[in-house]
Amino acid sequence: MATIRATCGECGDVVLTAADVRVLLCTHDNSASYTFRCPGCRLMVVKAARGRTVDLLVASGVAMSSWDYPAELREPRGAGGPITHDELLDFHRFLVDDARFTEALTALEGGRH
Ligand SMILES: [Zn+2]
Fold it and tell me: CA 20 to 30 Å from 14, out of 51, 62, 111, 112?
């Protein structure tokens, strides 16, 4: 198995195998990083990686996984002011009204199928 040389901020240069390293690709902006647990200090190390480094790591057998920002970050913002006392009271009444609360939960469950 190919050896991979990387740098830990605490320990300096370390030698790893492909199984020790993981490439992480952000599908939102196509940025990449790689991560490993340092064999010296056992801390997780994350480093930004450019295309050529990613290609070399993957060609060496390093596993790659993709991720994206949570969908909530793409929700529109600013459509309403701060929560008022009246809205808080309405929410409290909603929470203590078992029938309305159950109805809302049922509607949520139905929306997921
Ligand atoms: Zn270390």
Answer: 51
